[in-house]
């Protein structure tokens, strides 16, 4: 999607993707990755997710990347955190304790902007990308975190012709096509979530699954 689409979503508060609670899959499956405490976790397209706080509470240094300054400001405001801000040539970086949010375009980041990253948490980031951008997203992730990493990936699957994204449907086959050259992939959950998602039923879906994967670099 173009940046204006997302800026408009935040402007108009059309953020149905945002959860007020920590994502249950994060709590359940992150410990299985055994990512060392004290290491750095990247959260691409982070929005104002409370998951950033949970990760910091587990002892990680957390770097989120988010296009919308409204989202970044809302995150620190809602969490009651006072952030220091600095401006670089491409980004505004807000930091409070172990949490840094890089405000700007994920595709403009370089590995040097992030430093060494040990793990990635992608909830609703890959599925925010239209099909033609997903290979670029995966390539960018790979170039940003070339060292071995672990990851948790949460995606949605439905019949794409029944609804326009985002969120886009990303099948387990597509996840494997996109990621298996770089990561070992283990699907940990495949849940039918249509019943509890009236807004997607109203948009015409008769199937909606949430998939949770653990990733581990092959190198
Ligand atoms: C579907 S939301 C998911 C947010 C978050 N991961 C969550 O679980 O609540 C996708 C987010 O990505 C942001 N975004 C979209 N394109 C981006 C880009 N190129 N660079 C950085 N952030 C982007 C949007 O502003 C939006 O907040």
Describe the structure.
With 219 residues, this protein is of the alpha/beta class. The protein has eight helices and nine strands. It has helices spanning 3-11, 24-33, 51-57, 69-78, 111-114, 134-144, 172-179, 198-202; strands at 40-43, 61-66, 84-87, 92-96, 99-103, 119-123, 150-157, 183-192, 209-217. Strands 3-4-5-2-1-6-7-9-8 form a nine-stranded mixed beta sheet, with helices on both faces. Strand 6 (119-123), helix 6 (134-144) and strand 7 (150-157) form a beta-alpha-beta unit. The longest helix is centred in the middle third of the chain and has 11 residues, at 134-144. The protein is globular, with a radius of gyration of 17 Å. It starts with a helix and ends with a strand. The model has no long low-confidence stretch (mean pLDDT 97). The chain binds S-adenosylmethionine (SAM). The site of S-adenosylmethionine (SAM) has 20 residues, from strand 2.
Instruction: Report the order of strands and helices.
Output: HHEHEHEEEHEHEHEHE
Oligomer state equals single chain
Strand arrangement within the widest β-sheet reads: 3-4-5-2-1-6-7-9-8
Which small molecules are bound? S-adenosylmethionine
Present the secondary structure layout.
Layout: H1 3-11, H2 24-33, E1 40-43, H3 51-57, E2 61-66, H4 69-78, E3 84-87, E4 92-96, E5 99-103, H5 111-114, E6 119-123, H6 134-144, E7 150-157, H7 172-179, E8 183-192, H8 198-202, E9 209-217
Parallel strand pairs: 1-2, 1-6, 2-5, 6-7
Antiparallel strand pairs: 3-4, 4-5, 7-9, 8-9
Provide a concise account of the structure shown.
It contains eight helices and nine strands. It is of the alpha/beta class and 219 residues long. S-adenosylmethionine (SAM) binds at residues 6, 17-18, 45-47, 49, 65-68, 71, 105-107, 123-125, 128, 166.
